[in-house]
Amino acid sequence: MIKALMVAHYPLNPDNIKGGVEAVSVNLINGFLSVPGIDLKIFAINGQNKEDQVIRYSEHITIHHAGCGPVRSTKYRLFFHYRKQLRRLIKAYKPDVVHIQGNGSNLLLSCKIDKNNLVVTPHGILAEELKNQLTLRSKLNFLVNICIETLLMPRLRNFICISRYNAKILDRDDLPGCKTALIHNPVNPGFFNVRKNEKPVNRLIYIAGIKKLKGLLDLLEALKITADRRQHFRLEVVGGVVEPGYAKKVNDFIAANRLTGQVVFHNWLNQDAIIKLYNDVHILVLPSYQEVLPVCISEAMAAGRVVVAAKVGGVSEMITHRSSGFLYEKGNVPELAGILSELYLNAEYYHKISAQARKEAFKKYKPEKIAGQTLDFYKQVAGV
Hints:
With 384 residues, this protein is α/β, with parallel strands linked by helices. Helix content is 40%, strand content 18%. The strands form two sheets. It has an eight-stranded mixed β-sheet with strand order 3-4-2-1-5-6-7-8, sandwiched between helices. A six-stranded parallel β-sheet has the order 11-10-9-12-13-14, with helices on both faces. α5 links the parallel β7 and β8. The radius of gyration is 21 Å and the shape is globular.
C-alpha cells in the first residue's frame, strides 16, 4: 500500500467546478476510487473556506480542505499559510510521494519538501499565456509567477506531463535523476453517457472563461460570416467573465452584428449541467491562442461531439484533423468559418467524425485508467 499526498485546487463543492484544473483534480480523485493499493490524502487549496475541514471521501481517500486564513494574497497564502499546513500534514502522515498539481506560484509549496519523492504536474505554459494578458496587473502577476517557476523548477526531479508539447517545453528527459511520465487528463464518466444528437447540425458550445486568450471574438466573427451565408448557428457560451474589458468587446460585437438571438450566455456551470447541455449541442469550438491539453476537448470527444479547435499547444495531439475533429490556424477566422459551414446541416459527415472522436476518448481519457497510470508513476518515484 503506497501512501500519497496530493496538493490540488479541489473545490469545496466538487459539483461546482470552475476551469480545467479543478475538473482534472476532481476526475482524477474519482478515478482513484476504483484503484486498489493506495492510501490518498488530498491537500485542497481552493481559497473558499476560512477554517480547515476534513472529509473522509472513501475508505482510502481523505480530503483536507485547508483554511485560507485572513490574508487575500494568493502568493502569501501559498508561501506562508498553506506551506506551514502542508509541512505539518507531511510530518504527521509521512507519505511515500507528494504530488503538486500546478506550476507557477504553486511551486512555492515545494520549498523544504524532499525533492526525491516530490511529483509535479505543470498545467500551463506561463510564458505563452503572458503574451495574451490585457492588463498591467495581470502581466505583472504572470511575470512574478514565471520568476518563481524559473527559480524553483530546476530543483525538481519528477514530473507528470499532460501532453508531448508540455514535455518538450519542460525538456527534462535527458537530465540525470529526473523521471517523467506522459499521462493525459481524465474525463468525468458522465460525458461518456451523453446520447447521440440526431437534430440538425447547427448548435455550438464554447467552454472557457471570457478573456482574450480564449479567443471568443474570433468565434463570433466566424458566426457573422456564416450568418451572411444564411447558415445560422446557435452558440452556448459556458464560462464567466475573466477580463471585463474583453467581455465588453464581445457584447459590443454581438449587438453591432445582430447576433443577439444566436448567442446564449450561461456563466459557469457545474459538470452535471454541462453534460445535460451536451445532449442538445453538436460542436465544441475552442478558438484559444494557447492551450496545453484542454480538458473541455476530451470531454467533448467523450460525449461524441465534434471539436473544432485552433491548432495550438497540445491540441493537435488530441485531434486527428478530419478524422476525429478539425484543426485550424489560430486567429484564422475565415478558415474557422469555412469548417463550420462545411459541417452545417451535414449530418452524415458530422456523425462519422463524432463516432471516431468518442472511440478515441474511450481509449485515452477514462479516469480509472489515468489514476492507474498515476499510481504506477508514484511507485516508480517511491521505489516500491
